[in-house]
TrEMBL record:
Keywords: Cell projection, Coiled coil, Cytoplasm, Cytoskeleton. It is found in: Cytoplasm, Cytoskeleton, Cilium axoneme. It comes from the Eukaryota. One of its GO terms (cellular component) is axoneme. This is Cilia- and flagella-associated protein 91. It comes from Dryobates pubescens (Downy woodpecker). Residues 99-126 form a coiled coil.
Length: 261
């Protein structure tokens, strides 16, 4: 009345088929005992190869039953001839089995070689793709450099074409000072201008800053509100009582002011 549930499937818990014990009567040899070497997973359930083996064993037992008795010289010669014929037949069958086994091994070897060749081809393709990408990057860099050099040469040609005859042009001061990229605002080093030289000329030197008398004179010239700062204490936003509490009227006034704003 109680059901149980395990963590395994029935197929995972299935054991080998049960083989009951048996007793062989004296004087009898059942054909089923010839298959005692077969077990579950090792020949059972029987396939085409096992069926051929069973048929071949039956033929051999029938052939052994038909062998002549060894009671005369003619029967002995006949028996030896039949045994030689059977031995050749078994050797031929064994050669066929060897050939089949060799064919299977050859097929497995072909598959392994084919798989190895496919892996090698994939590796070669990957390497070729890697080299192709590197060449493409180098090609793009060269093309970019060619475009940059082309634009540079075009700008030079345009600048040379403006003055083809090499005539001297007068300096246009107004044009120079209206163009913030001109030599007046941004002189170039290749034209003989070095901004790091004579940097001390930009230092501010004044009598009012370098001497005490100048500082006193500068201070005397300044108005009183610059030197004499007057600060006023801020008025509190709330009207407080002597005990420090905010009055209700003051709080309402602040709230009304905020609402009005």
């Amino acid at each position: 009345t109680v059901g149980t549930q395990t963590d395994y499937r029935d197929g995972e818990a299935q054991t080998d088929p049960y083989s009951p014990e048996y007793v062989v009567p004296s004087g009898s040899f059942p054909e089923l005992l010839t298959l005692a070497t077969l077990a579950w997973g090792q020949g059972l359930p029987a396939g085409l190869a096992e069926v051929e083996m069973i048929e071949r064993a039956r033929e051999k037992r029938a052939w052994e039953a038909n062998l002549p008795a060894m009671d005369s010289a003619s029967n002995i010669a006949k028996r030896r001839k039949m045994m030689d014929h059977m031995e050749r037949k078994e050797w031929a069958f064994r050669e066929q089995e060897i050939e089949k086994l060799q064919e299977v091994r050859l097929e497995v070897l072909k598959q392994l070689l084919r798989r190895q060749e496919e892996n090698q081809n994939k590796l070669h393709a990957k390497r070729l793709q890697y080299h192709w990408q590197n060449h493409q990057k180098a090609k793009e860099e060269r093309i970019k450099k060619v475009h940059h050099d082309c634009a540079l040469m075009l700008r030079k040609l345009i600048a040379q074409r403006k003055n083809v005859m090499g005539k001297l042009e007068r300096r246009d001061i107004i044009q120079e000072y209206t163009d913030f990229a001109s030599q007046a605002y941004a002189p170039l080093s290749r034209h003989g201008y070095f901004p790091d030289n004579h940097a001390e000329r930009y230092v501010v030197r004044s009598f009012y800053l370098d001497t005490f008398a100048g500082l006193c004179e500068l201070e005397a010239s300044l108005p009183d509100y610059v030197t004499q700062v007057k600060s006023k204490a801020p008025k509190p936003k709330y009207t407080t009582t002597e005990t420090g509490y905010v009055k209700r009227s003051a709080r309402l006034e602040v709230t009304l002011e905020q609402v009005h704003q």
